[in-house]
C-alpha cells in the first residue's frame, strides 16, 4: 500500500477516535450536572426522589413533572418565587399541611421556629433547595418529614406543592432573599 494512502487512513481513524472520546467526555460532564444532590437534614446522607407520585400538579393529579419540578431537579432553583399565583397556592398548602399550627399563620413562629430568616437553625434553609431538603425528610430536633411517602406510604407533599409553599414563605419577610441566590447555593449546598 502506498504510504500516503496509509497515512490518510490512520488520520481518519484518529479523528474518529477523538470524536468518540470527545463526545464521551462531553456527555459525562453534562451528565454530572444533570441532577442536583439532595441531602437529608437529619443525617447528611444523600436521597433521591423517585416515586412518580411525588411529582405533579396537585390539582391535576396527573403525576406529570411540572416545569418547576424539572428546573428544581436540574438546578435546585425555585421558579415559583415571585410568581403571585403560585405563592397564593403555596399559602393554602401551608395551611393544608398544618405548617400553620406550629409555625404560625404568617410563618413567623409559634410552637415551631419562624421561617422567614434571614438566619436559620439549618443555615442551608436560606436556599430553596436547602429548605426543601429540611421539610422533605424533617429534622432531628422536632419536625417529621413532609415529603411524599416519608411519613406514611401514599401521603405527603409533592415537590411542586412544596416549591409553592416555600415560595410563599419567602414572601413573609425574608428581607429580599429569594432563596435562589447563587452565592448562598454555593456556600450551603453540596450540588
Ligand atoms: C408539629 C409541629 C410542626 C409542623 C406541623 C411543621 N413543623 Fe416545621 N418545624 C417544627 C419544629 C419544632 C422545628 C424545629 C426543628 C429543629 O430544631 O430541628 C421545625 C423546623 C422547620 C424548618 C427549619 C427552620 C430553620 O430554622 O432551619 C422549616 C423550614 C420548617 N420547619 C418548615 C415547615 C413547613 C413548610 C411545614 C408544613 C409543611 C412544617 N414545617 C410543619 C415543627 C413543625
Question: What can be said about this structure in brief?
Answer:
This protein has 191 residues and is mostly helical.
Question: What would you say this structure looks like, in words?
Answer:
- This protein has helices spanning 3-32, 67-75, 84-96, 99-103, 128-137, 159-169, 182-188; strands spanning 38-39, 46-47.
- It has 191 residues and is mainly alpha-helical.
- α3 (84-96) crosses α6 and α5 packs across α6 (159-169).
- The protein has 2 domains: 1-34; 35-188, Cytochrome c-like domain (Cytochrome Bc1 Complex, Chain D, domain 2, Orthogonal Bundle).
- The termini are far apart.
- A hairpin with a 6-residue loop joins β1 and β2 (46-47).
- The site of heme C has 24 residues, from α4 and α5.
Give the N-to-C terminal Cα separation: 55 Å
What overall geometry do the principal axes of the alpha carbons give? elongated
Which class of secondary structure composition applies to the elements? mainly alpha
How many beta strands in the DSSP annotation?
2
- Secondary structure tally, helices: 7
- Binned, the helix content reads 40-55%
Our count of domains comes out at 2
CATH class of the largest domain: Mainly Alpha
User: For the record, what is the CATH homologous superfamily label of the largest domain?
Assistant: Cytochrome c-like domain
* % residues in beta strands: under 5%
Element-level helix/strand string = HEEHHHHHH
CATH architecture of the largest domain: Orthogonal Bundle
Q: Radius of gyration, Cα only, in angstroms?
A: 22 Å
Strand order of the largest sheet: 1-2
From the 3D structure, determine the CATH topology of the largest domain.
Cytochrome Bc1 Complex, Chain D, domain 2
- Main β sheet profile: 2 strands, antiparallel
**Average pLDDT reading:** 90
Bound molecules: heme C
List unreliable stretches of 5+ residues. none
